[in-house]
Specification:
78 residues; mainly alpha; flat
Amino acid sequence: MEVWHCSAIDLSYVFNLSAETLCMKGLVLTHMGQREEGLELVKKGIRLDLTSHICWHVFGLIQKGEKNYEEALKSYTQ
């Protein structure tokens, strides 16, 4: 019996990613220690949809985790 292991991150190239999906993937990568790549995905997600409160919230979470509280506050108020 063959077992397939897959994750949403690995399959992301198959699907058309929305801004929120990119931001969530960036958040996961950031927490996995791939900070630069994760932050770049979050910024790309924000550029795709500037009005998404989810994208701005994710960006705020990352900024808060880096103890950049002023940027986090700006993100939460977007």
